[in-house]
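Section 5.1 Outputs to date
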Amino acid sequence: MKLHCSNCNYQFAPKTGKAPQRCPYCSKEGSLEKAKEMQDLIDEFTSEKRAGE
């Protein structure tokens, strides 16, 4: 599982199984979210395109 910081855009995979509460790079709390994978981006683009037709 990769995580992404919405504050500084740092991406990392935590070494332990659970996600930390704060970003290890900028120390901002509550800014971590699961990083989007390529398939997530493709699915998002496809659903937006279908909605706009």
